């Protein structure tokens, strides 16, 4: 009984979550600037870095930022980080399925 | 090379500094170009060499000051009795990527007009503080005769926390949909709508006592503090997601010290920032200085896979591709057996494997191999 109760609670919470407005996390100071690279630039970047998509750092499809940007699997995200040492630094991540 | 060309090569910090210096000394033409050339050359020299073993250097540089850290002390932040894990245990917690921080805590910043009003701060700290049913009851009894639960409310506590009796009632009704909630003087009676076993009734009591009456789940304690001309709420316990939903909260600076939670709410890149910030803060608190580059490297490795991965058995060390490298880390037999069963191939490309088979390790000059240029066929 009690467990059923708990389950129901969880389910009802889940329903609410979908309707909730997403918080604007992109403006948070911990979150760097994200851009989805257009297809033609992807090839250029991969050639420049001499790597395959497989070897790049990953970002999960379930990541809150990916959800907000509406990125798809295999998209390349260009991340402009604030760096302690270099001012800004550019980083790439590939969107992957979990 | 002229200044504009160097922008692509130099990091932003170096470039802006060079630009201001050139303007300051009014360099132009050939002189300016020589200056840029020298800076670019010197920058290129200062970069780390390919195949340098940065990981070992980072491990050394973090490990050595680590020996100077306090081993097992809690320190109390500010006047309030709020304890925060510090020193080595905290570093282990962050690098181990524990799902639950030992002492989660948040810094809640407020938007501009609100952060100076003492009255508003007090009001907000009351509204975000977690109030569970057990916090506002004198006792919760299981009445076996009538198969129901009686929660005797503590009216004084209710007043202290400025919680309305009806709020409590409504929260219970919302939380326990399968029960009938009635009030009887200062008591709230929870009666299941259907017949249940005695054991389940006791379980129900536990569930009921943890129902959130008011506030935000997980915020156990709130202390307003004045920091640089503004009020900041420091909390024990953390719930970043819910706090960020409050209108008056500064959504740019409000942060929790729980890396795992940062990852879930703000994403992997924010988790990387959190790892760096938290470790740096922990070292600095102890009066130790570690170059941030080492921490950046560790944070990059930990977040490389898109998820926060600890340094250890179930994290980075367990993910190595080489069988021999994994076997040398822990429980050698287990790894060797499973590698044999799965017909794994060790390419012997890492450092550990090559030490084991007594070969040159792929580090520094050993990283490169000679390749013959084939003669052109006629």
Strand content of chain A: 25-35%
The whole-number mean of residue pLDDT values of chain A reads 81
CATH architecture grouping of chain A: Alpha-Beta Complex
CATH topology assignment of chain A: Eukaryotic RPB6 RNA polymerase subunit
Specify the structural class of chain A.
alpha+beta
Strand order of the largest sheet of chain B: 10-11-3-12
Radius of gyration of chain B in whole Å, from Cα?
30 Å
- Structural class call of chain B reads alpha+beta
Overall 3D shape of chain B: extended
Give a count of the beta strands of chain A, DSSP E runs of length 2 or more: 4
Tell how many strands the DSSP assignment of chain B holds. 12
Report helical residue fraction of chain A.
25-40%
Number of helices of chain B: 16
Would you state the CATH class of chain A?
Answer: Alpha Beta
Structure write-up:
- The complex is a heterodimer of chains A (98) and B (378).
- With 98 residues, chain A is of the alpha+beta class.
- Chain A has a single domain, classed as Eukaryotic RPB6 RNA polymerase subunit (Alpha-Beta Complex), CATH 3.90.940.20.
- Helix content of chain A is 36%, strand content 26%.
- Chain A is built from three helices and four strands, in the order αβαβαββ.
- A four-stranded mixed sheet of chain A has the order 1-3-4-2.
- In chain A, β3 and β4 form a beta hairpin.
- The longest helix of chain A is centred in the first third of the chain and has 18 residues, at 2-19.
- Chain A starts with a helix and ends with a strand.
- Residues 1-19 of chain A have low confidence and may be disordered.
- Chain B is of the alpha+beta class and 378 residues long.
- Among the domains of chain B are: 3-46, no CATH class; 131-214, Gyrase A, domain 2; 320-367, DNA polymerase, domain 1, CATH 1.10.150.
- Helix content of chain B is 43%, strand content 15%.
- Chain B is built from 16 helices and twelve strands.
- Chain B has a four-stranded antiparallel sheet. A four-stranded antiparallel sheet of chain B has the order 5-6-8-7. A two-stranded antiparallel ribbon of chain B has the order 1-2.
- In chain B, α5 runs antiparallel to α12 and α12 (268-285) packs antiparallel against α13 (292-302).
- The radius of gyration of chain B is 30 Å and the shape is extended.
